[in-house]
Each structure stands twice: as structure tokens, then as C-alpha cells.
Specification:
Strand content of chain A: 5-15%
Number of helices of chain A: 14
Oligomer: homodimer
Helix content of chain A: 40-55%
Number of strands of chain A: 11
Structural class of chain A: alpha/beta
Strand order of the largest sheet of chain A: 2-11-8-5-3-4
Largest interface: A-B, 41 and 41 residues
């Protein structure tokens, strides 16, 4: 186990109609003038956001509203939000939505406490961020999509649309004060969005499970596996019964635990699949992050598993339920990867790049362009912890995924 | 899943020599004059506590020292600590030790922010605490024994020695600001203490696993099972190799996660074994909490399993590795309980009341006295969530455990 520090201070408030508690908690954390940030989508159209705002006002809070967040949220709206909040003297931010809305909120919250351009926190110079946020305006979340785990993570991903640049800023100032999770809110999601969420949640613990440590990582292995089992069992239930409350609730809480740092304690993390996917959905805005991961993860697995077959065998037998092939252990692993791909297909996910909208005709030139743009993790220009991947490796993974 | 709120704000700082960071974190949380609280035991005698104090002073902090905490920590020393801290104007408390030292620290911290007698928080009137703490002086922990999980729990257990009363106060003011966990510090523990810790850690998640909910509790079942697997795998390693760093580290982190609320999210909790054991070690100060649990838990299981055989079958097959007996499922459960008892024996634990020091000649009169004294959980005078137990049930469990 590597030395580590773990902090997950976000208060989880889980249950039916939990959103009615938002005003109470905002006041508990010192808020009085609140930005309600959202994507102007279904939750606005069905009146949910207006009902929350009415309740906040009834609780004695002032409210400013800013909608319009798009998937892979744009820097432009973040800048607009910062200007609006400064003008309106907002002292608390409430994200109502999924990862895109939460990340847009986090970026606004950082920008409010910074004199310079908030994009400084997202771009690098000589392999280091141009600047590191020192603080952030407090914010909370009403979660409406279980997927990114941004409600409990320290991560914020923003896209600069004019350059097709999707970049992140990981810092503890990005921790929400509270995350309100009403599982019923996720019941109206299209099956595709639910499935993308399940893939993303699994992926956050896969990135922490397939790590370079060679010793036996007992506790965190089991914690990651708890996420995998939960996602697969409850994902299958939701495919057949989208209104199953227990399955919705389990997936929602799994979303938060899979990306708050818990499953990665004392481990290095891989993150290659995520970094590569960020370039894919940064290049093709029509690609949903979870769908991109469903395509790239099995390809990544087939490309890297030889680095640590012991760990892949543990996953294959304990998680994917494959019987150990003692004569040819490799078969056990390949069967498990096939089963993962089958699970993704059963959930309605694409598992080839060519099945993704807009990516049908991905050619080698674009593969190379994206591969070269993947944010590097190591001074040698590579990405990934489990196996270090260079540009040519990434192109190979794209090829395997076509 | 029941509605729930989850908050675990304690910062975990894990690794070799992590104790050297104590001063930095105390200052981060606003401390300047620190009470160092301990048990005057091995860690004092081997110079560790003096080294920590020197480091705190080198970090610019003032230090007051109070040792002398005993197992099942006494109210008397808590009162002494409160008086000392008031006189010395202490603004931060640092517990160096295990559960007893941490709980004594928590009680002092509550008493410092309360005009009345701190015992008010521990005693009941008409089934409610006489008073509820509103705040507490901030405190941190350097953990030297992995067992009670008090470093991350909201719980505090104090004994009023003159009345043999062991009572608790569960409140979020009892959350430590940080818990420093250096696995090497636990290597010098006697095997018996290590084993008692393993039993206690397992027990904290068993109390959250065997709960009255009838639906399938997917995620938290797996999280509890992660704790069980980790304790059994790493416990066996430590029995043969007490200096195994990885096993020490896994047990230490499991201690914190097993009692910070994580494994009980959305569940009711049972706690009968704990409540009954508190009377046992409250009556016999020579009984270590973990050893008492090793005796009482299997007896409790055999007494209650028929309430929800499905859940016991899940535990028997997924955790204890028993093959399902489809003809007579009950056999699967009884075999699993036998295996748990065997594991405890392998760890050097007693598994009968008569093997506990001082309890050899426990008679029916004392059983009845203890059973009647068990703190009730429900208005009908019973204790336990999985199965409600009345005085006669508790006496039966004592009898089965003799």
C-alpha cells in the first residue's frame, strides 16, 4: 500500500424527496444568495428545477438561475457564470444535474475566488498546471444522473470548444459541501443515459483497480469489486425495470463512492482509458463519455492484460465469474473481457468505435491526431499507470476498437 | 435502502512515519495549545510519545500531557482531563493510542464545550439521553491499535467505574479532524491484541450487515463483505507474520472504514452483540471488548439466523466460502458459523464465556443481572435490529456461550 491521504468531506443526503432539504443545508453552510445552475433540459422542462427554486425562496434564500450547460461543458458558459455571480454577489452555488452541470459549477466556484482566467487551472506549462486554485465558493449538488461521480470527486472537466480541448483540474477545493441524491429523479432517464452512467461508474473503479502495484491490495481490491458487482447486478435490473427504486439507489450511491477516492486508497491509478476517451469525446461532441469508455475499455484490457495477469485473473474469477482455466490462465482473462463486452452490449452500449455517432469513418489521421493530443502523465510522454502507453500504443488501441 | 445521511469528514493520513505530520495538521485545523492524551503504556515507555511531543514543540505548538487511560476508559480521568484543559487553555486534543484513549479524548473534548457534567451525554432519562452535545473542541488521532474504529466513528464509550456502567454517546461532534495511521506502530502489539482488533473490526460491519431490511442491499452488502474478507485474509497473515506491513496497513484502514458509517449506509443496524458485550466487559474489566465479541457473536448468530436465512446464506457462501447445501440450506449456515468460530480460535481468541479471564464461574444470577442492564433500543424494552431480543433471549445467548 502506498502512503496516502484520503479526504471525502461531502455530506451524502440520500432518499425520496431529499431535494426538499437543499435550503436547510445551504443555510447550514452559510449560503444566502444562491446560483442555481442547470442544463435547461428535462428537469427544467418538467418543472422540477422551478419547484426547487420555489422551495429555496420559501426557505428564505435569494436565487439567481443559469441554465444552458451542454455535455462536455464549455468554458464560455463558465466565464458567463463567473461574471453573473460576481454581479449578483452570489455566495453559494447549487448544481442541479449530472457531471456536466456539476463540473461547470465547480469551475464557476473556482473562478469566483480567482483574479485571473479560470482556464489557468486547466492548462499546463512544462507538465504542470499553469496555476493551482487556493479556494472556491462553497457549492452543493442535487444529483439527477448517476454517472460521473463529480458530486463527491475532486475533479472538474471543462472543454474549450474553439480548440476542441477537454481538460481537467483535480483539487480538493472541488469537493461539494453536500450531495443530495433522490433515486427517483433518475427514473426518467433514457436507458442509454442510464447505461452510460453504469459504464462510467464502473470505469472510475477500474482505473483504480488495474494499477501498477505488484503486491496484494486486499481491501481496495474488494472495495472496487463491490462497485463492479453492484453496477452489473443493478444495471441488469434497470435494463428490465427502469423504475426499480433499490437498483436506482444502489447505482446512485455507487456513483459517489466510485469516484470520491475510496476505491483508490494507497494505489496509483491508471486513468489511460479516461485520458484517451477525453480526446475522443473532445473531438466528437456527439460521443457520450460512458459510451466512449464502453468502446475503449475492453480494447485497452486486451492490449495491456499481460502486464499483470495475476490481477486480471482475480478480476476474471471474482468479479466476472469465469472458472479458472489452470492449464491456460490467459483464456480465463480473455473470456472475462468478452463477458464485460457482452454486459456492455446487453446494456445497449456500443462496443466498437464505428458504432459511435459521428465516428463511423474514423481514419488513421484522426486517430493519430487524437493520440498525440492525449494529456501525458509521465515525463517520458506516456499515459497510464498499469502499462505506460505512448502515441503508437494509443493508436493501436483505437485500431483494436474500430 | 432506507433514507440516510452520511458524513465522514475525518482526513486519513496513512503511511510509514505519518505521525511526523501531526503538527502540520493540528496547525491547519487552528490548534496552538495541545493536550496529548495517552495510556502511559508501551508507546510511552518506548519513547514514541515523547518523540511526538518533541516534534509538536519543534512545530511551534505548546503541549500539555495526560496519560493513564485504562481499557474501558473511566469517567474520572475524563473529568480530570477537562479540568486540566480548562486550566491550561487547551484548544486542540491529540489522542495517541487506540479506542480507549480516543474515547477518553472525545469525552474531554465534549466536556470542554459544556457547562454541565459531561456524563449527561451518556445517560438516559425516559429512553433519551439526558443531554445532547452541541459542539466539541477539535481533536485528532495518532492510531496505535487497529480495532475500535473510534478514529473515524461518531461514537464514544465511557465507563463509570463505581457503578460498573459502560455507556456511549453517538454524535457527529465526536468525529476526529484527522486520523494518522502508521501501520508499523501496530507491529509491536501482542498477538492477542491484534486478534481482538480483527474481531472488533469485523463486528462493526457485522452489526451493519445482519439488519432487519428484507430487500436486497446490494452495495453495502458487498462493502461489508470487503471488510470481512480483508480481516480474515490479513488476520491469518498477521498470525504467522506479525511484521507484515501490507496486512497491518489493510487491517488499519479496514478499522476506520468499518465504523465510519460507510458499511451501514441506508441500513438499520443490529448492535445487539455490542450492547450485550458492553455489559460483559462492564461487569468484568478483565474482558477485552474484542474477546467478548468473539465469544458472543457466534452464539448470537446461532440464536437468530432463522430470522433471515437468505442473508445468512449470502454470508455463508460469499464470505465464509461454504458450498451451498441446496437440500438443507440451514446446514450451510451452521457450517459457516462453525467456520467463523474456527477462525476466531485460530487467531487465539476465546470462543466460550468460560475461557474469558474472571468469567470462568459465571452463574445464572450474574447472567440475569447483566441481561437486565443491557441498554434497550426499542420502547418495548428490547435490543437488536435483526431480531429483537428481550432479557430472556439475552440470558439464553449467555447460556449458549458458556
Amino acid at each position: 500500500m502506498n502512503d496516502f491521504t484520503y479526504l471525502s468531506p461531502t455530506r451524502l443526503i440520500v432518499g425520496r424527496q431529499a431535494e426538499n432539504q437543499a435550503g436547510t443545508w445551504i443555510k447550514e453552510y452559510g449560503g444566502s444568495k444562491v446560483l442555481v445552475h442547470h442544463d435547461s433540459g428535462f428537469m427544467k422542462q418538467n418543472g422540477f428545477i422551478d419547484r426547487v427554486i420555489e422551495q429555496l425562496k420559501a426557505d428564505g434564500l435569494s436565487v439567481v438561475e443559469l441554465g444552458g450547460v451542454v455535455p462536455n461543458p464549455h468554458l464560455e458558459l463558465v466565464q458567463e457564470g463567473i461574471a453573473l455571480c460576481k454581479k449578483e454577489e452570489v455566495d453559494f452555488l447549487l448544481a442541479i444535474g449530472g457531471g456536466s452541470v456539476i463540473d461547470s459549477t465547480k469551475a464557476i466556484a473556482m473562478g469566483l475566488q480567482y483574479e485571473g482566467n479560470v482556464w489557468d487551472f486547466f492548462i499546463e506549462k512544462d507538465g504542470e498546471p499553469l496555476n493551482v486554485p487556493a479556494k472556491s465558493t462553497p457549492f452543493g449538488v442535487i444529483l439527477t444522473i448517476a454517472a460521473t461521480g463529480s458530486e463527491c470527486s475532486n475533479s472538474c472537466v471543462i472543454t474549450k470548444a474553439d480548440e476542441n480541448l477537454k481538460r481537467f483540474c483535480d483539487n480538493d477545493v472541488n469537493r461539494a459541501r453536500f450531495a443530495i441524491e433522490d433515486p427517483e429523479l433518475t427514473m426518467s432517464l433514457p436507458p442509454f443515459q442510464t447505461a452510460c452512467g453504469v459504464v462510467d461508474i464502473m470505469s472510475h473503479s477500474m482505473e483504480r483497480y488495474f494499477t501498477p502495484e505488484k503486491e496484494n491490495m486486499v481491501l481496495t481490491d474488494y472495495l472496487c469489486e463491490a462497485i463492479f458487482h453492484t453496477c452489473m447486478e443493478c444495471g441488469r435490473i434497470l435494463r428490465d425495470d427502469p423504475n426499480n427504486y433499490e437498483a436506482r439507489a444502489n447505482i446512485m450511491v455507487a456513483s459517489s463512492l466510485s469516484h470520491n477516492g475510496l476505491t483508490g486508497m494507497g494505489r496509483t491509478g491508471d486513468w489511460a482509458s479516461h485520458y484517451i476517451e477525453h480526446e475522443l469525446s473532445g473531438e466528437y461532441f456527439s460521443v457520450t463519455h460512458g459510451a466512449g469508455l464502453a468502446v475503449l475499455t475492453p480494447a485497452w484490457m486486451r492490449y495491456v492484460y499481460k502486464e499483470n495477469q495475476t490481477l486480471f485473473l482475480k478480476w476474471a474469477t471474482r468479479v466476472m465469474g469465469v472458472s479458472m482455466d489452470y492449464e491456460k490462465p490467459e483464456r480465463t482473462i480473455l473470456e472475462a473481457i468478452d463477458r464485460l463486452e457482452t454486459f456492455y452490449k446487453e446494456m445497449g452500449m456500443p462496443t466498437r468505435l464505428s458504432e459511435l455517432p459521428g465516428v463511423e469513418n474514423l481514419d488513421e489521421a484522426v486517430m493519430e491526431k487524437m493520440a498525440k493530443r492525449v494529456r501525458v502523465m509521465h515525463p517520458d510522454g506516456s499515459v497510464g499507470g498499469f502499462k505506460r502507453l505512448y502515441t503508437e500504443d494509443i493508436i493501436n488501441i483505437f485500431r483494436m476498437a474500430m
